[in-house]
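Blackboard transcription, Thursday session:
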Amino acid sequence: MQVPAYVEYEKATSVEHALALLARFGPEARILAGGHSLIPMMKLRIAQPETLIDINGLSELSYIKVTDGELRIGAMTRHAQLLDSAVAGKHFAILHDAEKVIADPIVRNWGTVGGSLCQADPSEDLSATFAALKATMVIQDPAGSRTVPAREFHTGPYETVVAPGELLTEIRIAIRPGGGSSYEKVGRRVGDWPVGAAGAAIWLAGATIAEAGVGLTAVGAQHFSAAEAEEFLRGAPATEASFARAGEIAAEHCRPSSDQRGPADYKRHLAQELTVRALRKALRRARPQDA
Amino acid sequence: MQITVNVNGAEYTREVEARLLLIHFLRDELRLTGSHWGCDTSNCGACVVWLDDTPVKSCTVLTAMADGHEVRTVEDLERDGVLDPIQQGFAECHGLQCGFCTPGMMLTARWLLDRVPDPSTEEIREALSGQICRCTGYENIVRSVRWAAEHADADQRLDHDSGEDGSNQAEHDGGPG
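(Written on the board underneath:)
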């Protein structure tokens, strides 16, 4: 039987209260959002916080809305809510693509967007998704809030820039015209981590790619992204040939490792092929009249 | 810590450790052993219960997180001797073999039918994709859910002999569907 070690528990009633509790209990306290990563780790005694600060009551952090030309997602938004959100899917179809393949429907009911990001598992899907979208994370402490680009959010496996005493509160994605996005994942079965996955976002100016984002999951990509492929795509024609080359570049620059989910060369192949597929679908969505 | 949880319509106030998982609270403290403690890793779904209106894997939820909330377990599907159509569907279509996964399967299926009253087999499979039947009886589980969808308003008296027809329908507190 797996049981967490003894732990203290505090129920936060507001963001301010959560931040006050974090300050009071110090670096051995952990925020408890959906708990679907933290509680399994506590059961295995990999994580052993002294105090849990439960933020499930903070409905103020559960929302998906458009404000000032940005899609804004509250950190306590559950995966199922993001998957069900018409406004999220309308602007960024990649969010629905990714959410549909995260864990399983029951886990998605309770696991949260912010919790997944702060868990920072290198095989987690939303990190590459938000990297592709060039999203911005909003992090709050008692003195105020700061913003961090998605690509600077992670400092390593299971590590983020969110310091003790801070709370991730929101994810922001700029809405720009001419955009299309998608996420392609290969996994062994429902609920498993991906063998590999790629996300793409492109913004067109006529037949040219004005801006591109390529995110990669579980293949050892720096900042969950393929910066060199994006650099190649910027200003390139939105053609199959461009996408093929971008896939090759993405594969060249990632550093997958062999494990029980597959050998490194297969994962590198996935990085290449899934990048191409994601770009292809992103283009179709950027040009709905051609679909 | 002291918690108060509404389980199947009844309030329970208990002193618990913060680390107590909801599945163990339900089974060991309240003796509601219909929910099964399976893989312990949030993979199998035998422990699925509703937390407020949402199915969750109760091996991955702390009892403390349910404080002030409502929990619904498999014991709540049958009301006053009347089976929920989903239970009747599992009986009619041989939806269970060893029965271990059944409580979770039925609670997720009930939730699906509340949201999608006439689901396709694809939708049923998707909804149940986070739950494992180690007897591999998925075909009949899907048939059972379809049966329930097609018999949403049926009279499901526990005792077939005394029920006989639909004459007791008015006692069903609005009916199970």
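Lecturer's comment: The two ends of chain B are 38 Å apart (CA to CA).
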